[in-house]
Amino acid sequence: MTGLRIGQGFDVHRFAAPEDGRPLVLMGCEVPHDRGLAGHSDADVMIHALMDALLGAAGLGDIGQHFPDTDPAYRGADSAQLLRRVMGDLSERGWRVVNADVCLIGERPKIGPHRERMRGRIAPLLGLAAEALNVKATTTEKLGFTGRGEGLAAQAVVLIERI
Ligand SMILES: [Zn+2]
């Protein structure tokens, strides 16, 4: 079992004002909604949690170290591209992903209609079949910042193994 490592990630972004016109990007997919998430990059909260889980599993720190939000290079960055770089770092070190489980936390939007599109977009970047990338969501029963619709949170867990 020594060739296996687990990692977890958590991220939060607040919603931008509707008049900011930012798209809502989740798992590399634009999801129709009346507002997008605020952030230095495209604010893809699910990919950010996923990248932190991958970096954590490989013992490589966190996305703040790899892609500092003070660096203009990452302004408006496509998080799917950043995920590609994280996967490059992992494979250079001899790791491959076994499976991943990503959970969006918030009241709206509902991601059910977009789940298969998200899996189809991100699973190949992880070197996975779609069935090995689980995408799910939960509400917080209208409690807290996610319950009030102030933002979205995401959690991710990944398992990696030595190639
Ligand atoms: Zn983030």
TrEMBL record:
Keywords linked to the UniProt accession: Isoprene biosynthesis, Lyase, Metal-binding
Binding locations of a divalent metal cation: D11, H13, H48
Cofactor: how bound: Binds 1 divalent metal cation per subunit.
Residues that coordinate or bind 4-CDP-2-C-methyl-D-erythritol 2-phosphate: 11-13, 40-41, 62-64, 67-71, 138-141, 145, 148
Domain of life: Bacteria
Pfam family for this entry, one: YgbB
Ranges where the 2-C-methyl-D-erythritol 2,4-cyclodiphosphate synthase domain occurs: 4-160
Site (Transition state stabilizer): H40, T139
Pathway given in the UniProt record: Isoprenoid biosynthesis; isopentenyl diphosphate biosynthesis via DXP pathway; isopentenyl diphosphate from 1-deoxy-D-xylulose 5-phosphate: step 4/6
Subunit structure: Homotrimer.
The protein's role, per its UniProt record: Involved in the biosynthesis of isopentenyl diphosphate (IPP) and dimethylallyl diphosphate (DMAPP), two major building blocks of isoprenoid compounds. Catalyzes the conversion of 4-diphosphocytidyl-2-C-methyl-D-erythritol 2-phosphate (CDP-ME2P) to 2-C-methyl-D-erythritol 2,4-cyclodiphosphate (ME-CPP) with a corresponding release of cytidine 5-monophosphate (CMP).
Family, similarity comment: Belongs to the IspF family.
Protein name in UniProt: 2-C-methyl-D-erythritol 2,4-cyclodiphosphate synthase
